[in-house]
Structure of TonB-linked outer membrane protein, SusC/RagA family:
Amino acid sequence: MKKVPRFLCVIACLLFYQLSYGQSKPVVVEGNVLDAQKSPLVGVTIAIKGKNTGTQTDPKGHYRLQIADPANVTLVFTFIGFTTHEEPLNGRTAVSVILQEDRKKLEEVVVVGYGQQKKKDVTGAISSVNSKAIQDVPVTNPQQALQGRAPGVEVINNSSKPGDEPQVRIRGSRSLNAGNDPLYVVDGIPYSGSLNDIGTGVIQSMDILKDASATAIYGSRGANGVILVTTQRGKEGKPVVSYSGSYGIVRQLGETDMMSASRFIDMRREANRTIGKYDDNNPDASDQKIFNAVEYANIKKGVDVDWQDLMISQGYQTNHGVNVSGGGENTKYSVGLGYFKDQGVLKLQNYERYNFSIALDQRIGKRVKVGASLLGAYSRRNGETYNGIDNALKMLPIAAPYDDKGKLITYPTGDNQQPNPLLDYVDGNRIELNKRLRVFTSLYGEVEIIDGLKYRLNVGPDIQSYNYGLFQGKNNTNLLIGGGDATASKNNASVVAYTIENVLTYNKIVKKHNIGVTGLYSVQRETTDMSGTNVRGIPVESQQYFNLGQALNVTGLSSSLSSWTILSYMGRVNYGFDDRYLLTLTMRADGSSRFAPGKKWGYFPSVAVGWNIINEAPLKGQTFMDNLKLRASFGRIGNTGITPYATQGSLLRIPYSFGNKGVLGYVPQDLRNPDLTWETTTSTDIGLDFGFLNGRITGVIEWYNQRTTDLLMPQTLPYSNGFNQVLMNLGTSRNRGLEIGISASIIDNPNGFSWKMDVNYSRNRSSILSLGDGRTADIGNAWFVGQPTYVYYDFKKIGIWQDKDAALAARYNVKPGEIRLEDVNGDTVIDAKNDRQILGSPQPKWQAGTTQRFSYKGFELSIVAFARWGSMIKSDFYSNYNTLFGRYNNLNVVYNTSATPSNDFPRPNANQERPSNYQSLSYFDGSFFKIRNITLAYQMPNKVVSNWGMRDLRFTVGVKQPLILAPYRQTWKGIDPEDVNVIGIDAPATWMMQFGINAKF
């Protein structure tokens, strides 16, 4: 009996051993760790939750980890700049994850002038736009990507013409005559000329420097703000091939509401009825008098032609880019090619661009780095000055474009001032092509002399070439109106520029003290060589503008050479104590060749302080707020503002008679002023940065005051001096404003529905404080002390004189049906001196923008919108196409008659080419709200993409400019109120439906 228990004990021990051995046998778990772009992440820590064991990913983003029991283990993935991710194994042995960027941590480092800083150490006003935001909206150039994205940055599109660039203003306009464009810096090198040369696909980020602390480091060119453009560079890891492509269908946003045939016929009848030349008792005989034979015959035929429909067709926009990047520990590279084409809705307008980019970074040993980036572009722009829609809008709807044989009729109405606009579309009648080639390069070498002390050499060659040609055949509409033989123009220009910068930096942390010192010595030089020839009388039109020497007459010759140089010294000191108190001191000295001896040098200091309140003892330990910083800055920055040789005056060649012979002589054209110097802007800025709920809500509030003195502006002189003006440093202007920017993750569920948004608001008030010599107004330029730098100064329309007011109208020497103007001084005389007034300004009361992103599983919906409110616009449509004369077609307005006593538009009048004081009809409320873009994207699942041998695959469909809400559009039948100061006529506003694909291998 004793042997049985022993036997059972042995069996039990064996079973327990087998069970224990099975449970403790280690299992290898492996996988890959990638970022949102499916690129491998190197050095990610993978740990077992609750234990001290773990590993890291290799250069390929791969990891291997032995685990005893995968059924009850959770892996924790941590990496700087990314949110911590926990992944339960549940028995799996293959686990790959994608880490999401931690916005709060990523934004700890921002690009500043000549370096980078942790965001907590920044004392200046800086806004940033990353590559994802840039790609949210299909754009032609980088500036358009900033529209509605950053507080205090105003981007206004001039037109929808392919190749046009928008106007950019940072914190308003401050100069009256010297320009208000910001300075662009690409990869550390100042950049001049067209940003169209840079494809948006290569941009990593754009940082906008707004206050004196941030911009004073660029001295005489920083008064209008600075935009730092950083392009993409290679990353450590195996090669990544990426492709992005899109195709968009472009259509006219809305057709200008012109009169139909019946409306035009009624309008011409009314115009002649007004002057007593239309007899309603004998309408047919009257029609034969007021319509010519061609027009009368077409009326009888029932001709009703929509000329806009004939001129405008569907356009398209396509954009493609291929990039290869990668590298090892010492060498990183990125190479890209791009192609872009924008075919406008007018046949003769298009823009085409080829881009290439190269970025290379090489480490040599432990202390030396060298690198280069090259941006190249070749572009072709057709129809840069073409305005074919002008003739189409004026053409009468009762005019037939083709004869019975289908041939274009040269003068469809018999009027030699109204040629057929379709003639421009005939091959060879009009050819306009602008070809550009540009190679912009940034080279650097950096040596760490000792720990913390670095010397960097930046060299930036920049070569540009322009070739412009315009040919107009004798059947081109411009020549058919003016008459004459075929004309041609040829213009060429080359620009060679370079920048050389020597930068010395020293950074040291001593206990609680953080010290950074930057020193700069630089030189920048640019030389422009231009020539042009204009001729008339091309004997063989197929020669176009390629054989100007065969022309009958040379109507113009020109050439010029200009060069300028800026020599600069700069010093900056950054000091921080205990991550709480911050100080930045900057001084820059610029010497410019544009100014005369004794005036060449300008000095631009700034000081800024910051207080990281969040790091004070009372706030430590709390979890609700994670950022609270108060900033203030004060400094001076400049605006070069004049062209080379402006201080030396110029000569003008004129013909005159001497001894009964025609000879040529020279007279002074501009009065020289050797005392010209920089415009100087003194800026004060106060800002508050904040963040809550572990970065879920972040934002900034800024208040600023900028005062610009020594404004470069013309001083009016008596004509008896031989000159009517001279350029001087005279006036003073001011800009004050408020900016608010907020980013929030309202719902943040990586495995479900998420909602993130960015919102910004800004208001700017510009005003002229003085004009020099005690003047309070310069009426010729519409400059007024106490008013914005640009205003509309004109008579104010208060209605239309009605029949019941005939007696009062007679006192003003006008008749019922004419425009009624406000009599400011009440003397019953409307005159320019006493009754013109400031009607408004293009400056809005406020503007705002927002980006909303919604995501669920693999879907993402983004909506980008912005608004401008309280501005005024001037519309050329209501002055050029609202003549109510009867010779040309007219906007389809409700004009005044005895039967329809409109108070908006005057009575047609065949004796007036335009209504009296017609300009007063052109002013409208310019407020608007726009949805710039709606994009729906779908990210293919990782398993599917991996099976196809890819890293990432994303499809998008979007609509550009699908909605505009504006009084000008909904009330006054306008198309698009967005333009710079005046709504012009050159290309119709458009919208676009776009389809895209992004792939990585």
